[in-house]
Design a protein that fits this description.
Layout lengths: L1 H47 L22 E7 L2 E6 L11 E8 L9 E4 L9 E2 L18
């Protein structure tokens, strides 16, 4: 009985770490879909030195048309890309948002746009544009997003 109790306790301790792993895998799975929006935003900055206000000005379909197994919508807002999780995403991610913000060198538009994930800070001498709407708990975010 004692051995069974010890095994049960160890199994219960492993469950939270496994859930976190599955949540981070869903976030990683969503990243390629963000590329659909990253390229038009970066091109707009390189050509006009401005960020698209919305999906239409970025030449993208409506937010709810950019979807995948784990993504419910992808919205461009002032250059920032907001990924809303849904469909078959982990329950802890349902309805949650992850923001990717473009970081630029304002007086040197030839410098490529860098992308800032979640609550992360912009690289030195770069300014992150757009609003961070990330509401995924920090413990579930990949390291490059905190």
């Amino acid at each position: 009985m004692i051995v069974v109790a010890i095994i049960a306790i160890l199994a219960l301790m492993a469950v939270p770490s496994l859930q976190g792993k599955y949540i981070r895998e869903n976030i990683v799975e969503a990243m390629p879909l963000a590329k659909v929006a990253k390229d038009p935003v970066a091109i707009a900055w390189a050509v006009t030195k401005t960020m698209p206000d919305d999906n239409a000005s970025a030449g993208l379909p409506e937010p709810d048309k950019i979807v995948s197994n784990v993504v419910k919508s992808v919205t461009v807002e002032g250059g920032a890309i907001h990924i809303v999780f849904g469909n078959r995403a982990n329950g802890a991610l349902q309805g949650k948002t992850l923001t990717l913000r473009p970081a630029v060198v304002e007086d040197a538009p030839i410098v490529p746009v860098a992308w800032v994930c979640g609550h992360a800070k912009a690289p030195d001498k770069m300014k992150a544009l757009g609003t961070d709407r990330t509401d995924i708990p920090r413990q579930h975010l990949p390291l490059n997003c905190v």
